[in-house]
Specification:
The chain is about 65% helix and about 15% strand. The protein contains 4 helices and 4 strands, in the order αββααββα. β1 and β2 form a beta hairpin.
Length: about 160
């Protein structure tokens, strides 16, 4: 119990980070939905476009053509993951890199859950490509999840190295 009380301020910092990710994600998606039709966008550079895309699946459009039930599966998984992440943050809020990683993942997961609840799909709009090959479009929430996952890996590598 003392551990929880000691880490309370950091716990709120990580939840605040998640909220910032959610707000940035939803703000950018509102801009895209409000200004572009599905498939419409513009070139930013020779390798990057802003384009409105709808993803009814998960990462890389996994299960996108499944018929609709996947909306509820991915919403449930996102909410379950959020619950586990909040619990983990309570237990380990004092670990800076770990808390940062979980805050990013939490915000990204909930940003995409909000889309699934409101639209029944996730709004993606960041489109990178090279030599005519497009990487699957993604959004701010996906970027935060990826950053968080990379930070989790780094945190584990550093933890293992400290243990040697």
């Amino acid at each position: 119990m003392a551990r929880w009380q000691h880490n309370t301020p950091r716990y709120w910092i990580w939840l605040g980070l998640a909220l910032i990710v959610i707000l940035a994600d939803q703000f950018t998606k509102v801009l895209i939905v409000g200004n572009y039709a599905l498939g419409e966008g513009f070139a930013v550079t020779s390798f990057f476009n802003i384009v409105r895309v709808h993803n009814t699946g998960a990462a890389f459009s996994f299960l996108a053509a499944a018929g609709g039930w996947q909306r509820w599966l991915f919403t449930g998984l996102g909410l379950a993951a959020a619950g586990v992440i909040v619990w983990m943050l309570k237990q380990h809020a004092g670990q800076t890199l770990f808390g940062f990683a979980l805050g990013c993942i939490l915000g990204g997961a909930l940003g995409n859950v909000i889309d699934r609840m409101i639209h029944s799909y996730v709004v993606d709009f960041l489109d990178f490509y090279y030599a005519g090959v497009h990487f699957p479009a993604f959004n701010v929430a996906d970027s935060a999840i990826t950053l968080g996952a990379a930070c989790l890996i780094l945190d584990e590598v550093l933890r293992v190295r400290r243990g040697r």
